Here is the input.
Amino acid sequence: WPNPDAPLKDHAELGDRARAVLAANDTGAMVTAAPNLYPHMWSWDAAFVAAGLSTISVPRALAELAHLLGAQWESGMIPHIVFSEAPGYFPGVDRWRTEGVSPPGVKSSGICQPPVHATLLRRIVERATARGGEAARLAEDFARQSVPQWIRWHGWLRSARAGDGSGLVTIYHGWESGMDNSPRFDGPYSRVQPGDLEPFVRTDTRIVEDASQRPSDEEYARYLWLVQQMADAAFDDARLPGVVDFQVKDVFASAALATANEDLAVLAERHGHAGEAPRLREWAEEFREGVDSTVDPETGLARDRDVLTGEWIDPPTIAGFAPLISTADRALRERQSALIDGPDWTGDPRLAFPLPASTSTTYGDLRPRQYWRGPVWPVMNWYLATALRRHGDEGRYAAWRQASLAQLMEGHFGEYYEPFTGEPLGSWNQSWTAAVALEWLD
Ligand code: 9WN
Here is the structure.
């Protein structure tokens, strides 16, 4: 994977290049998720990108989150894509048929992504407060103004997606997990049989020329079938349980929500909404318990559940470490920490860098070059590492930081990396990869 400008000289150059990637992907209204493959704003990408941007400019970081919030639906949902005017991505806004359901003037998809936003907003505000001056004033004002909107987002997740009190978020599409084709979803997707599907032409495989790094055509037909089912039901939350062929309790999104509720409670307390904090802490507890309840006593990994069959989902993926994000149970945290150091994860001696892959590297059906079926995702490593650190694990944080920076020094800012060779895969100059490089360096 020859890089004309590589290898990078030092961390200073890595930072310069990361800033240049974010600047190049900035349309003025949004930093697109990637230059060609994803020329729009993605919900959870925007949160990580905002954190990275805040190391450069707090106002620019806040503008990113404000743009995302501008697309919030009346229900409280924050859509997974906010479209720019750029052509080229499929499925585009027309395929989603969200006009009339999304707010007037907003072009968006009709599903959501993991709720990491409040966690990253807290980080941005704390960074700005530490800097003081104008940055602090702007960030604190933004928090004061936007806390009610984030509460509506979390409230929607809790009522529309976890109204059963399980403390676990239901997703109706693998895209909602952010880990589209993870082996987590092989069982549920095997039961999705596309019916009378509108014809479609993919654009992703024109950009990522090696199609084997992307999901297959068969998988895409299923993805589009679910979009069609939801669009036919006008994305009506009350109707989705009756019509969608894919319904999974997503343990990773639930852990993200548990910790984001905690972060939102802190923001609410500090920035003018203290009365909301107790309710947010209750929500945090509900989802924390939900996540803990999924742990397989034998393997020690957390599990998703297929709502339609009632079955637990077993493949060993990075989502199995959801409790590292959310749990308050010290024994569980210790067990999972030991597991992630072990030979199925960061302790696999074949790895180019000791970082957790999206799927255990000893999994029988590992595909080390294919998307969420094996590659290492820099953004995941940073998110998990900050969760570890928040619970006092400075050691693993430092080790993962060192390994992540070493991985990123090859200079492409890949979307994902081959675990054994370190080859950058998928899209290059991916915004959230550049953003986490800046976070690691800060
Ligand atoms: C579908 C933008 C997004 C990420 C997801 C990642 C990928 C989209 C796609 O790209 O998903 O939402 O077209 O493959 O899986 O996590 O948010 O970077």
About this structure: The CA atoms of residues 90 and 201 lie 8 Å apart. DSSP finds 18 helices and seven strands in the chain.
